[in-house]
Hints:
By secondary structure, the protein is α/β, with parallel strands linked by helices. The chain has a single domain, classed as Rossmann fold, CATH 3.40.50. Helices cover 34% and strands 18% of the residues. It has helices at residues 42-53, 112-133, 156-169, 195-210, 218-231, 241-250, and strands at residues 2-5, 32-37, 57-64, 75-79, 98-101, 138-142, 175-180, 183-185, 215-217, 238-240. The protein has an eight-stranded mixed beta sheet with strand order 1-4-3-2-5-6-7-10, sandwiched between helices. Helix 1 crosses helix 5 and helix 2 (112-133) runs parallel beside helix 3. The termini are far apart.
Amino acid sequence: MVIRRAPPLRRLVGGARTLVTATDQAGTEGLKRLVIVGASGMVGGYALRYAIENPKVLRVTSIGRKTLGISHPKLIEVVHRDFADCSSLSQTLSGQDAAVFCLGTYTGAVPDAELRRITVDYTVEFSRVLHGSSPGAAFSFLSGNGADPTGRSRMSFARYKGEAENALLAAGFPHVYIFRPAYIYPVEPRKEPTFSYRLLRAIYPAFRILFPNQVIRADDLARAMIDVVVLENERGSVFENSDIRAMAKSLPSAPAQAKGST
């Protein structure tokens, strides 16, 4: 495990610059200490950005399997390569107010056994150590559309996400927020992981008009995941795609670079 305390910010998601917020303001009472897991990914990267920009966030600890190449006075970066054993993170996770868990992989990108290990085992192990170190923390989890907590789905992705959801809801956290997005629009160009994602990106302009509740922008999803643990003002625990869209629309001051809407 490698811990890096970052100097002043240079760049964030997609090369876009971010605002430097005042962390030297008098008093820190009420400000949140957040952990973000998976900030090197699409949604996690935006989550990191908005956490850093949020004036209600005092400190952000990013935990991932590789370095991010960014820096900010609020940011502590922890490189942790084996999420099958998170015991060494116990000190890092002590005193945290919330975790935003975006670690995952795409169906078809890895064998089924690895898909389950990443989706279920890594989530359960991380939550075990987090709860032991910060039992009062809130937990924001990136699940997926169609997640099946009953375990009866024929789709392994749905079963595994449902299993992870069940484990988190039973872990003892005071607040668990589960996000089930449908198609997550990348916003910024990227190399799509599969043919289906390349197709969806190509037809997105029409798809978002015909099926608005089946799409969500990656930046809107990330903002909702950060907002819910910072404010803790949502009574529900499971948010489907339509719920996430409604949450995103209710958030104030959407970033200027997020042009257009779904």
